[in-house]
Write the structure tokens for this entry.
Amino acid sequence: MPLVTIPIVDVLPATPRSRLVTLDLRGQCLAFEPGQAVMVGAHDIAERRPYSIACSPERAIESDHLELLVSLEPGGSLGTNFGNVRQGTLVDVDGPIGTFTLPASSPDAWLLFVAGGTGIAPLRAMIDHLLRARPAHRPALLYSARRADEFAFIDELSAHSDAGLLELHQTVTRDDGPSWTGQRGRIGPAHFEALLHDPADTLCFACGPDAFVKESIATMIALGVPETQIRTESWGR
């Protein structure tokens, strides 16, 4: 897709430290694969940054909208790439970019998604795409966040889990409040063992901070997942 200028439709809280930014595609044909990103910048400003697309291609076509999960800056803003960040604000969008995508065909493989924080964005796009196609095995998601209120899209993901479509495991790393009754601590072998039903035939997709992704790779390889079947995307936080 060539560079287009489109407006912000909405900016909603996704977690205390992130926002779901919705852009109006205005009928623009944005052909992308689940897991890819777009470059976004304030209108008429040369600098643009990549943001993972948080919706599947099917959802984008149905709604004529593009969804991005954006982390807040330390001061609480979305940064300069979204201008004044209100409904109707124009942004320049280019793309798609990236090779963190599902394979063209592996219909019989098990699928494990591993998300750290806002790393859930491209994985949400992949999961929605897969569930529409009815995969051979129920996909699994291991989702780690700092606190219980920092799981983006958790209502949607929990609904998939309740319907028996997704095997969902969550863990928090810093929440010591009594309201959280799920798993705690950094992800480790026990978390992966619960979800790796056939390590040699599992495709794994991990996205999140660098250290999180590196640790996940090492653990999956130690548990028998071939390195060639692990795809990752990370950033330096």
About this structure: The two ends are 30 Å apart (CA to CA). The chain is about 20% helix and 35% strand.
